[in-house]
Design a protein that fits this description.
By secondary structure, the chain is an alpha+beta fold. The protein has six helices and 13 strands. The protein folds into two domains: 110 residues, Major capsid protein gp5 fold, CATH 3.30.2400.10; 130 residues.
């Protein structure tokens, strides 16, 4: 509970400006398209045409022959419920805090930013679990859904420019130019290594059109152009990254347009029952990851922390 004794923003000689320095880097929650989930078990269909490796010509006058037909595959992910609570005392709301904003509104806004950071973490690291009584269900995140082109490299492998190009080629072989990955998410150490690549004419562009303000590196191969972004929640073994989910450094590549955030309930503010001289509330939202391009996405692990 927030009380006046703990509130360092109460007006004394403070300027009426509060700087939000929370590192809420949430590119997936910001950039990915959204869709609607109709149930806690979210399902969709995926179909795939295998490119031919050889062709037999039909003889003149031959009767038609029929190959076995494949049905689309049913893909399933579960929704996750995320909450972030906030609580402010009546006395705190009656004071005149620095910033000129109602403390309840300020804490609600801060809770929403925290909720979005948790969502971002879940989109990357979520592990599918149906849940049991008293335990919530969990959705599968990117590192657990990209399996077709997943490779576990030897621990401490150095990421080379040739290997980067190989991954882009493998993605192209599965889906062609239109479906090859165009977004690369890596820990900061791997991003610094990629910054030194030269063959693909690495350069930086302003991503303001994608609701992001930081510069983003792009790299071009014969399979297309890929944007490379450092991501706070892609697993890294660096001791300074306390949010890492695994000691295995990951390299994630995906086709942005083929991944969506499916909401059963979009995040909203809910005020809870009063239980004293204080206001209680929470941010609630329920969502899952919808992946339509798993087959052409790439995930590799085992790289050295610095690339």
């Amino acid at each position: 509970m927030l009380t006046t004794f703990e509130d360092t923003s109460r007006r004394e000689d403070l300027l009426s400006i509060i700087g939000d320095v929370t590192p809420d880097d949430t590119p997936l929650a910001t950039m990915l398209k959204t869709s609607t989930a109709k149930d806690t078990v979210h399902q969709w269909l995926e179909d795939y045409i295998t490119p031919p490796t050889s062709v037999s010509s039909a003889s003149e006058g031959a009767a038609a022959t029929y190959a076995a037909l494949d049905q689309p595959s049913r893909i399933v992910n579960l929704t996750s419920i995320l909450t972030e609570t906030f609580r402010v005392s009546g006395t705190e709301r009656a004071t005149n805090p620095g910033g000129g904003q109602d403390p309840l509104d300020y804490q609600a806004g801060k809770a929403l930013r925290t909720w979005k950071m948790k969502q971002e973490y879940q989109l990357v690291n979520g592990s599918l679990s149906s849940g049991v009584s008293g335990t919530g269900a969990d959705m599968a995140g990117l590192i657990n859904v990209v399996t077709t082109l997943y490779t576990a490299r030897n621990s401490g492998t150095s990421l080379s420019e040739t290997e980067f190009q190989d991954m882009h080629q493998h993605s192209w072989e599965k889906g062609g130019t239109d479906n090859a990955f165009d977004l690369v998410l890596v820990p900061f150490g791997l991003k610094r290594k990629i910054d030194g690549f030269t063959a693909g004419a690495t350069k930086y562009v302003d991503q303001s059109d994608k609701k992001l303000t930081q510069p983003v590196a792009i790299y071009e191969t014969s399979a297309g152009v890929a944007r490379i972004m450092q991501h706070r929640y892609v697993p890294s073994s660096a001791a300074s990254i306390a949010t890492a989910a695994s000691s295995a450094v990951r390299f994630l590549d995906l086709k942005e347009d083929l991944f969506r955030v499916a909401y059963l309930r979009r995040p909203f503010k809910e005020m809870l029952a009063k239980d004293g001289d204080r206001e209680n509330g929470q941010i609630v939202g329920e969502f899952t990851l919808e992946y339509l391009g798993e087959r052409t996405s790439v995930c590799r692990s085992g790289y050295a922390t610095t690339g």
